[in-house]
RNA sequence: CGGGACGUGGCGCAGCUUGGUAGCGCGCAUCGUUCGGGACGAUGAGGUCGCCGGUUCGAAUCCGGCCGUCCCGACCA
């Protein structure tokens, strides 16, 4: 078989070839070591779950098509686990006393998520391996401490994997809970966007990020909004041409949130961040209303909508509109807009929310310097879950006063294959992968060149010596030309190559090449294996 | 979910517009020459043209349906 790491079986599902399996084992081992180091105990839970558990937590209905669902022969509903809060909470139900807390448990296990759009190879798949850890504490202070321990372990894990991961504030999405931090790796093919201030270090997921709003002083509006004709005007830009600056317009959008209409108001030059809307709404069941629905609700077409004078539809407004006066908005009548709108005087706003999507260059909410945006891979995500799952699944303990207390939980995930991909993204060149030695499938490849019997004997001897020294070594004695062997070694990313051929042996040397730097040195044949072994060991020790 | 593209030996593709019984590169097999940066020659094996149906004397090619894969978008009135 040709050199390679993975093969696609179907959309979002990959077979792991031997090289990939070795890397995966090393990544998993690094994760295990850091989990074990903070006292987290390893479990292994089933991939197939009864629906009943997920009904108890409420997620059977909350989660849509992303969950793989099936039935057994008795027609009982089952699902494939996307994550394991429920099952771990069941186990935590065996805990009886606060004296048994805190607990920290983890597993390295297969998850199934029917992603709407798997992409970018192994970065986003429907079946993948995840290290998921869960902590169980009696109180918030305990959860905070557990969360910080996990955070520390994650920092060490990503450092050992060979890349910098920036911690960002994140949206908790479907997991619920109060607080969550994502670990992001800057990468061209990243699917997330990080908002970042290099000045003060502020970092947040675009789904959560915000920016500083400059105070605006509007001219006082007239006593009431004035209706004026705007024939054919249907967009913010068109209204700008009619003399209304975008930052003085109110953009009115109609969403159906759990099937109930909500008007969402944004400043004309701002965009809605859909995830923020979901977070505030507490549901993922959000969609933009269609033109017919909008006409039925407001009596006008998109482009002429406004919230002035509406009393029977909920209005949510972005904070950027707070305190603004003398603005422009649609009149709910095609071809007419209103001017002189004072938001708080003329519109009944049910909720004031942060709904804006940050744009590069806007001022940092903390230091005021321009924000930058970059694409990143989400390599880890840690959550403070709170008591929802424990409550739903009956995980309680007796506290010191003999009273039953619901346990508070945290959950902490790292995608193993995704992190392999992140390493490759962070460490490759035009010839292929450049694995950090700590996760490389092999440390060394012994490359035999030429067809000289003496060279072959020496190469095999060096290979055996390296194996005896516990160096993970490949022996490339294929009947291929040297160029093919070199190119393959570089492609698969083995950190060190020992080239053995008649040319060097005539001078009593073999060649040691370093993948990362491209440097080569000649080693005396006799001490070659020992020298290579020492080099690998120094590398692994972090030298 | 919406939009777009693609599906032809193991891999990458051409052929389809204008129907006539399938071709190229790489890879693979055998032999020979080569052998420290992706060799060369000779010979050869290998294809239900995604599936089902239709049109036709005849379909990889035209028509319909289905399946699969990839890409873009996920919303902004």
What is the gist of this entry?
The protein contains 15 helices and 31 strands.
Task: Please give a structural write-up.
The structure is a single chain. Helix 1 runs antiparallel to helix 5 (140-161), helix 1 (18-37) crosses helix 11 and helix 12 packs across helix 15 (528-540). A hairpin with a 5-residue loop joins strand 22 and strand 23. The protein is of the alpha+beta class and 543 residues long. The chain contains 15 helices and 31 strands. It binds one RNA strand of 77 nucleotides through strand 14, strand 16, helix 13 and helix 14.
Note the overall shape.
globular
Straight-line distance between termini: 35 Å
Runs with pLDDT <50, length 5+?
none
Work out the strand percent: 25-35%
E-strand count: 31
State the major sheet: 9 strands, mixed
Number of separate helices = 15
* Portion of residues within helices: 25-40%
In round numbers, the mean pLDDT is 91
Which value, in Å, is the CA radius of gyration? 30 Å
Structural class, judged by helices and strands?
A: alpha+beta
């Amino acid at each position: 078989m040709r050199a390679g790491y993975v093969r696609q079986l179907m959309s979002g599902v990959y077979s792991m070839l031997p090289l990939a399996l070795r890397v995966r084992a090393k990544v998993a081992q690094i994760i295990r070591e850091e989990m074990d180091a903070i006292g987290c105990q390893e479990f292994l839970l089933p991939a197939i779950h009864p629906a009943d558990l997920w009904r108890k937590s409420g997620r059977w209905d909350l989660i849509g098509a992303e969950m793989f669902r099936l039935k057994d022969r008795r027609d009982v509903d089952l699902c494939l686990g996307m994550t394991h809060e429920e099952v771990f909470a069941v186990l935590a139900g065996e805990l009886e006393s606060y004296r048994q807390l805190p607990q920290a448990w983890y597993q390295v296990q297969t998850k199934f998520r029917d992603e709407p759009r798997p992409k970018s190879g192994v970065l986003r798949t429907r079946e993948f391996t995840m290290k998921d850890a869960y902590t169980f504490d009696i109180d918030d202070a305990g959860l905070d401490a557990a969360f910080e321990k996990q955070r520390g372990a994650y920092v060490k894990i990503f450092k050992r994997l060979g890349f910098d991961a920036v911690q960002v504030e994140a949206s908790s999405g479907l997991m619920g809970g109060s607080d969550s931090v994502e670990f992001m790796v800057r990468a061209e093919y990243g699917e997330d966007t990080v908002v970042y201030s290099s000045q003060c270090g502020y970092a947040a997921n675009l789904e959560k990020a915000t920016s500083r709003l400059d105070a605006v002083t509007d001219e006082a509006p007239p006593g009431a909004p004035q209706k004026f004709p705007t024939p054919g005007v249907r967009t913010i830009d068109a209204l700008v041409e009619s003399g209304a600056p975008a930052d003085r317009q109110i953009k009115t959008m109609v969403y159906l949130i759990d099937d109930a209409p909500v008007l969402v108001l944004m400043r004309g030059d701002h965009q809605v961040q859909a995830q923020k809307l979901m977070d505030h709404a507490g549901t993922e069941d959000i969609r933009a209303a269609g033109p017919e629905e909008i006409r039925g609700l407001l009596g006008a077409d998109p482009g002429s909508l406004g919230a002035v004078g509406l009393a029977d539809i909920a209005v949510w407004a972005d904070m950027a509109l707070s305190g603004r006066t003398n603005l422009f908005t649609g009149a709910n009548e095609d071809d007419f807009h209103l001017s002189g709108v004072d938001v708080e005087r003329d519109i009944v706003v049910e909720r004031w929310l942060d709904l804006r999507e940050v744009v590069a260059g806007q001022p940092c909410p903390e230091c005021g310097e321009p924000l930058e945006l970059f694409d990143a891979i989400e390599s880890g995500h840690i959550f403070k879950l709170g008591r929802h799952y424990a409550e739903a699944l009956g995980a309680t303990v007796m506290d010191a006063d003999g009273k039953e207390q619901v346990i508070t939980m945290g959950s902490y995930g790292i995608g193993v294959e995704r992190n392999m991909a992140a390493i490759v993204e962070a460490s490759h060149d035009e010839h292929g992968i450049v694995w950090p030695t700590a996760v490389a499938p092999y440390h060394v490849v012994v490359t035999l060149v030429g067809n000289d019997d003496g060279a072959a004997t020496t190469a095999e001897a060096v290979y055996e010596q390296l194996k005896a020294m516990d160096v993970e070594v490949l022996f490339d004695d294929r009947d291929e030309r040297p160029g093919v062997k070199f190119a393959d070694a570089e492609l698969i990313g083995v950190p060190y190559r020992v080239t053995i051929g008649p040319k060097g042996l005539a001078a009593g040397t073999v060649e040691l090449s370093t993948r990362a730097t491209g440097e080569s040195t000649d080693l005396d044949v006799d001490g070659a294996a020992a020298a290579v072994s020492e080099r690998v060991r120094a590398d692994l020790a972090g030298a």
